[in-house]
Amino acid sequence: MKKLEKKHPLAIRWFHWINFPLLALMIWSGAMIYWANAVYRVGVGKHQLLPMNFAQPTWNELHLSYRLAEGMALHFFVMWFFAINGLLYVAYTLFSGEWRLLVPNRASFRHALLTVLHDQHLRREPPPPQKFNGAQQFAYTGIVLMGFGSLVTGLAIYKPVQFAWLDALLGGYPMARFFHFWITIGYLLFFLVHVAQVARAGWNNFRSMVIGYELHDAPPSEVTGD
Ligand code: HEM
User: Fold this and answer.
1) Domain count within the chain
2) For ligand 1, is residue 191 a contact (CB within 6 Å)?
3) Does ligand 1 come within 6 angstroms of the Cβ of 178?
């Protein structure tokens, strides 16, 4: 016999699913800015990472090239919603106490290791069950810190005169752009791993992020009514 168990609070599910299209729009409009002009190069010294002509036909095909004004308008419009949604998510996890399940603790490193070994079929015994395993705790806390990093570095390159002190703290305007760029690459990597893990965990887990509940086997005492 199966029973439904509450897993994700309503607020968390809303923040999560609102964040997805917002982040997609931020990355899309960011790419429009990056591919607008060679001046938006990111590199070290003379070496440029992702030069303008890198995979140019693909960018043309995606209609991403040379649309600076549109890219900036979209980026600077959506960023407010991305920031507000992220800040509300963090505030909610703090006030509800959910952060205790999300933030890594002393046992998380070991738990993450046991999870990876079990996932790779190198260890038969699964790690002790908890809402978020150690690897998820590191990943989910990391992605929140990256969101914060995007806001801080974004602010530094959005208003470098007003926030000159922030640029200075980040090592200067080019460094702020460098971090802003690499955090975005981090999102893409996180996304690939996250979606692969969700697909691997199965429908029951995915559905719980939509409806809030997960199906579990009821203990024998509940089935027999003992
Ligand atoms: C197609 C896209 C996505 C799918 C299908 C998806 C699915 C899920 C699912 C099923 C969970 C629950 C995991 C569990 O309980 O074991 C989850 C949690 C989470 N996801 Fe995603 N996700 C997507 C995109 C994203 C993106 C773009 C981000 C952020 C960049 C993100 C960040 C998170 C975080 C931080 C949690 C933990 C939420 C909490 O409980 O506080 N997800 N996701």
Assistant:
1) 1
2) yes
3) no
